[in-house]
Every structure is written in C-alpha cells, then in structure tokens.
Write a structure and sequence with these properties.
The two termini are 18 Å apart. The protein has a 6-stranded mixed beta sheet with strand order 2-1-6-5-4-3. The longest helix is centred in the first third of the chain and has 17 residues. It has one domain: Nuclear Transport Factor 2, Chain: A, CATH 3.10.450. By secondary structure, it is of the alpha+beta class.
C-alpha cells in the first residue's frame, strides 16, 4: 500500500476551505477523497468536521450504521495508518458527486494492525464553496 502521507495536504486544504475549482470538478472531488484519508490518518478533528456534511451517515461493512458524530469519534479512536484508493470511478452530476471504487486501508484496532480491502460508494455535495461528504457505504471486496 502507498503511504497516505504522499497525499498533498496543502492542495486538499485549499480545496476544502473554499478555493475556486481550477482542475475541474472530478479532479477536485478526487482530491477531496484523498484529503479525507490524510486528515483521518492525522486525526485532525477540525478538518474531519469540515469535510463531513451535517447529514453524513456511514453504512459500515458489518451492516451497522454510524452517524456523523459516531463516525468522527471512531475515526479519532481507531488509527488508520495507511490508505490507498484504486479502481475509482467519479461522476459529477450538478453539485453532487458519486465516487465508487476500492480502498486498501491499514487500521490499528486496539493495538492490532488490521488490513481491510473494501469496495465503497461515497456521495459528495458541493456547497459553501467546497465538497462535503454526505454519505458513505463500504463492504468487503470480493474477488
């Protein structure tokens, strides 16, 4: 897996804090996706809160559901140490983006490094000058 520290934090921060779109909406959404992993690995609560819309929810691979606040707390508790997205398809329709793909992540769960290979679907909305994640669903990748 690639080390998530290779993501460009400065570019992502500028994007999420309301800089004008320069590359195009698909590229901007993909930068926001990468930046989400960067701030979750760094446990940067203020940036995580900015990325997630007020209505955010997460349908987890085990079939359970997390609200925005529960997701933030679990992200700060469990340490994701690496993340790599692949086979990603991003589609922008108006101010909404749908991103589907795979992600390999390494998470420290109570002292045990646990790898996950997931299939995911994320829904982003562009508002207030930035992309916000409003819904997420993931499942174990099957071959």
């Amino acid at each position: 897996m690639k080390n998530a520290s290779k993501f460009m934090i400065g570019t992502g921060a500028a994007l999420l804090l309301g800089s004008p779109c320069v590359a195009g909406p698909i590229e901007d959404v993909n930068k926001a996706e990468d930046y989400r992993y960067t701030v979750e690995i760094a446990k940067n609560r203020p940036e995580i809160e900015k990325i997630l819309g007020a209505e955010f929810f997460y349908n987890q691979p085990d079939g359970t559901y997390k609200t925005r606040s529960a997701y933030i707390e679990s992200t700060l508790k469990d340490s994701m140490t690496q993340a790599e997205r692949y086979n990603v398809k991003t589609e922008v329709i108006g101010n909404t983006a749908i991103v589907q793909g795979n992600a390999k992540v390494l998470v420290d769960l109570e002292g045990k490094l646990t790898p996950f290979d997931l299939r995911y679907l994320n829904v982003w909305v562009y508002r207030d000058g930035r992309w916000q994640l409003v819904a997420r669903q993931s499942a174990p990748k099957s071959d």
